[in-house]
């Protein structure tokens, strides 16, 4: 089931997809330049100025800390998301994000009812090791991640720590799809990179059970 699920996804995307196996039954599919330079540039400008960016505090090892990036949670009404002890209620879709959600749903043949929009202002902003494994995402969530702007390294590591970590540079307009049981056995992060001086926006489209 999971294997045929992977094949379906690969077949629905156009050419140039790299498949990273994440054993035992997870995978990541990477397509460079899924969005054209012009489309990703326009979307970046639109999001940077139109989104109501927030910097929420989360609970980390019992302490309340501001997350090291700005973000916004957008989605259908009722698609609430709990993350590190905080509950986020969605803001309404912008027309551009809704159009992107429709394109992804069509190309991947998957429903998406929400998107976490992240702004990394420069290489000092980052995201620590975690898995997108909240119960409302279901057992084997399909997460579609679109990157805009600065090139940043995205890393995977196996939770049991017995396998090497993998680094995948994500560039402007790239699409990364994580599926199968990837979130159960693997964590991911976006490390700090001091040499990066420009901004990156990342969109992770998800389906939340409501
Ligand atoms: O910025 C990214 O590429 C990943 C973001 C992420 O993993 C998350 O927000 O859960």
Structural write-up:
With 210 residues, this protein is of the alpha+beta class. The chain has four helices and 15 strands. It is globular. The model is unreliable at 1-7 (pLDDT under 50). The strands form four sheets. Strands 1-2-13-10-15-8-5 form a seven-stranded antiparallel β-sheet. It has a four-stranded antiparallel β-sheet with strand order 9-14-11-12. A two-stranded antiparallel sheet has the order 3-4. It has one domain (2-206): Alpha-ketoglutarate-dependent dioxygenase AlkB-like (Jelly Rolls, Sandwich). It binds 2-oxoglutaric acid. 2-oxoglutaric acid binds next to strand 8, strand 14 and strand 15.
**CATH homologous superfamily classification:** Alpha-ketoglutarate-dependent dioxygenase AlkB-like
Strand arrangement within the widest β-sheet reads: 1-2-13-10-15-8-5
The helix content is: 10-25%
From the N-terminal CA to the C-terminal CA, the straight-line distance is: 25 Å
Order of helices and strands: HEEHEEEEEHEEEEEEHEE
- Describe the sheet with the most strands: 7 strands, antiparallel
Strand content: 35-45%
Molecules bound to protein: 2-oxoglutaric acid
Our count of domains comes out at 1
Gyration radius, in Å: 16 Å
List keywords for this structure.
210 residues, alpha+beta, Jelly Rolls, 4-stranded antiparallel β-sheet, 4 helices, 15 strands, globular, disordered N terminus, binds 2-oxoglutaric acid
């Amino acid at each position: 089931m999971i294997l045929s699920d992977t094949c379906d996804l690969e077949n629905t995307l156009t050419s140039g997809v790299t498949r990273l196996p994440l054993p035992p039954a997870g995978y990541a599919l990477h397509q460079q330049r899924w969005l054209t330079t012009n489309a990703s540039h326009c979307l970046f400008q639109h999001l940077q100025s139109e989104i109501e960016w927030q910097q929420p505090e989360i609970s980390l090892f019992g302490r309340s800390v501001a997350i090291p990036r700005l973000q916004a949670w957008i989605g259908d009404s009722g698609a609430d998301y709990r993350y590190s002890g905080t509950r986020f209620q969605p803001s309404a879709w912008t027309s551009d994000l809704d159009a992107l959600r429709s394109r992804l749903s069509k190309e991947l043949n998957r429903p998406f009812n929400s998107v976490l929009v992240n702004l990394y202002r420069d290489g000092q902003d980052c995201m620590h090791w975690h898995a997108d494994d909240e119960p409302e995402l279901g057992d084997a969530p399909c997460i579609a991640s679109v990157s805009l702007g600065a090139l940043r390294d995205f890393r995977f590591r196996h939770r049991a720590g017995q396998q090497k970590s993998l680094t995948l540079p994500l560039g402007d307009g790239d699409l990364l799809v994580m599926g199968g049981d990837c979130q159960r056995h693997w964590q991911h992060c976006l490390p700090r990179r001091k040499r990066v001086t420009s901004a990156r926006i990342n969109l992770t489209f998800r389906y939340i059970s409501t």
